[in-house]
Amino acid sequence: xxxxxxxxxxxxxxxxxxxxxxxxxxxxxxxxxxxxxxxxxxxxxxxxxxxxxxxxxxxxxxxxxxxxxxxxxxxxxxxxxxxxxxxxxxxxxxxxxxxxxxxxxxxxxxxxxxxxxxxxxxxxxxxxxxxxxxxxxxxxxxxxxxxxxxxxxxxxxxxxxxxxxxxxxxxx
Amino acid sequence: xxxxxxxxxxxxxxxxxxxxxxxxxxxxxxxxxxxxxxxxxxxxxxxxxxxxxxxxxxxxxxxxxxxxxxxxxxxxxxxxxxxxxxxxxxxxxxxxxxxxxxxxxxxxxxxxxxxxxxxxxxxxxxxxxxxxxxxxxxxxxxxxxxxxxxxxxxxxxxxxxxxxxxxxxxxxxxxxxxxxxxxxxxxxxxxxxxxxxxxxxxxxxxxxxxxxxxxxxxxxxxxxxxxxxxxxxxxxxxxxxxxxxxxxxxxxxxxxxxxxxxxxxxxxxxxxxxxxxxxxxxxxxxxxxxxxxxxxxxxxxxxxxxxxxxxxxxxxxxxxxxxxxxxxxxxxxxxxxxxxxxx
Lengths: 172, 343
Known about the structure:
heterodimer; A: mainly alpha; Four Helix Bundle (Hemerythrin (Met), subunit A); globular; B: two-stranded antiparallel sheet; 12 helices
């Protein structure tokens, strides 16, 4: 077993452990920190597969920016510990086996029908130049359409968050 | 190079760079106290050693022997983890910074850098963006309203200014066509007209440099953007409840971040270790390190100078400056650079 494969499995174990901990923790800030661990471990996996640029972006965007906003909201609302209700035990008993079955089924379907062969360690297109070639040349139209979609989502968020026109300016 | 030799060389380099960095952190604190003192018509530290030069050692010993208080209402796991996170992320980013060309010792050729990755700049941005957690979690886990406000301000401020910071660097990236810090520095060798160095600041990126400088001051929570620890409003902000070495760790993280910012500014805009080379071969091999050191010293002095000069912003001024002035300016700078390069 090569050194890289051992590292890959270790990062994978951290990733799964973080994800399980995310569900098991009762306090939102601990769950958020577990999610950050998952993101960082995923970045490690990408790095080992050879996708350095994707790994760096994963850390900057997900672990560094999006999760900071999660933590910010948890801090701002001072969200307390999660409280169990009558339904939560039922949800636990039915939900865990159900989710396990669903994920196993999904993994099986993906493995059966995916046309691509498996990816080796360090085989992905890593350098930013190759990613840029893919994004801005080979898949330019889908890329631009996605960015317009994100722009629309941002504008929608601004409209929803801003105060209605009629109420502003009337307060003395 | 075999794996064993590689690990040995890496460990030696890490130890040397960590030692130099921590010494630099300690003496930046000394420099700050001394320079701000003189700016305010005081002497600064004078009692411990000549010119107060042993003051950092005295401070370090004091921090180690002070009582390490843990207030009763804090959330303990995160209260302990937060200063460690701050200091770890602050020290990690130095690992991709190159200090000079390769040197050959005992038959091994090795770059003056812990590791040369081709996404070096992105790695620095990623690690510094993780540095927010140290401050934010310290504020939250202290269970104190001043700390919480400090942590909230820090996370909002750092996320806001990170965008302008990142965009201000893209102009340099377009010009040099690489994320590798070594390539970026190599692209800045030579001169214009024989005497103006071909540094990026003289090569279209003048505005980019100032956007970077202002955003970096906000990222490191320094005056005039030190609202997360504004003592007139928040006692000491996110580190109000910390004492002894845990407090010192936040201090170390802040100064290590300042040094990283100075290194990145030097590498990206001021030509890294490039400078006039002369004299015998030994001097020629040492001069790049000297130039690099002088440039970093210049940036650290500027930090202190600004601290001695400017008052603190108001929070709404900080936010509108970042979003309504720096961000559009950075985008305009990026567009202009792209047009110039494409032309």
